[in-house]
Amino acid sequence: MKTLGTLLLGLASLLLLAVLASLLPTDYWLVRTVDLVREPLIYLATGLLLLALFLDTRWRGATIALLGVSILVNLARMWPYLAIAGTEVALDEEAAATPGARCFSAMSVNVKVKNEDYDRIAAQVARIDPDILFLMETDARWVEQLRPLLSSYDHVEAHPQPEAFGLVFATRLPVAKTNIIENTHRDTPTLYATLAPEGGAPFEFIGLHPKPPLPGWNTELRDENIVNAATQTPDRLPDAIVMGDFNDVPWSRTTSKFREVGDWRDPRVGRGAYPTFPADLLWLGWPLDQLMVKGDLELTGFEVLPDNGSDHRALLGRFCRPAATPAAGAR
Question: Which residues of the chain have pLDDT under 50?
């Protein structure tokens, strides 16, 4: 009993130390990784706390206190993304029925470059049939395997990479221009597209997939990539959509800054984490894939799609632009 109590105290101390270290303004990969696992850390700390309640040891009070503080700090950091917090995006499903509204769908998929289950990805995309498709981790094999699927789109922009950061952008909406910019790491491109639907104002679509925090990959350039994409769009249009595998969670200081400096709205706020990775262990709660919107674009639907054979779940958003209001005095 004494040994178990000491072990619990040690684990509680390590958990709180990791959580407090994650609040420091550092780019060190190991510290920044704590942001990714706040939700499973809450589950772990809660389980250990319940166990400590039933142990009669001299360290029980200290262990419970340490675990309680760890849980509270993680909950505070995740607060906007708890289901009890207020929302900032109204999912107006009736907007699509508004006369004159122009609606479309957008889907992002991290296919996993080493994945060879091409047919499952293709089948899911074909079933959803999005108007905008953003694929990540696409090498030359993936582009070739998905060529029949991509042929149904009016505009296709392929930028394959031999490792894990290639991308494909495909759309049926009229395209004014596209740019693929490697603005931080040489091999992690960011897509900027200006779409100009007939009869409506243009808007921008941004797709990105920066490198994750891993040994040897601190987060300075990843963070720069994410924050740059918030504001440095080619046309600076007021209406925009961003999608992609950020390799970051929405409650991190980096993605929070992205939202703040670019005035982006996140449908996850007030609704929960909507985890996307790992695809077969969603209870871990890693929402690495993001979808956000700004301006007058209305989000009418947002969902994490079923498993498609990749290690990430795909994201789907449905959008509408409200019909233009006639000017005063117009007939």
Answer: 325-331
Please tell me the distance from the alpha carbon of residue 41 to that of residue 35, in angstroms, as a whole number: 10
Would residue 288 count as lying in a domain? yes
The pLDDT score that the predictor gives to residue 305 is 98
Backbone angles phi, psi at 249, to 5 degrees: -95, 155
Q: What is the structure's pLDDT at 277?
A: 95
Q: How many domains does the chain have?
A: 2
167 backbone dihedrals φ, ψ, rounded to 5°: -145, 160
Residue 36 makes CB contacts below 8 A (sequence gap 6+) with 213, 248, 249, 286, 288
Per-chain mean pLDDT for the chain: 90
70 in the same domain as 133: no
Cβ-Cβ contacts under 8 Å for 221 (sequence gap 6 or more): 184, 185, 210, 211
DSSP output for 16-71: HHHHHHTTSS---HHHHHHHHTHHHHHHHHHHHHHHHHT---TTHHHHHHHHHHHH
Whether residues 55 and 100 share a domain: the answer is no
Look at residue 331 and tell me if it is in a domain: no
Is residue 125 one of the residues assigned to a domain? yes
Going through the chain in order, the beta strands assigned E by DSSP cover 102-110, 132-136, 155-159, 167-171, 175-181, 190-195, 203-208, 240-245, 289-294, 298-304, 315-321
304 and 158 in a common domain: yes
Q: Give 32-64 pLDDT, tens digit per residue.
A: 999 999 999 999 999 999 999 988 778 889 999
Torsion sign (Cα): 270, 274, 277, 281: positive
pTM, two decimals, is 0.90
Distance CA 150, CA 157 (A): 10
Residue 1 has what pLDDT? 62
Specify whether the CB–CB gap between 131 and 104 falls below 8 A: yes
Per-residue confidence (pLDDT) for residue 4, from 0 to 100: 82
β-partners of residue 106 are: 132, 317
pLDDT at 327: 38
* Domain that residue 154 falls in: 93-321
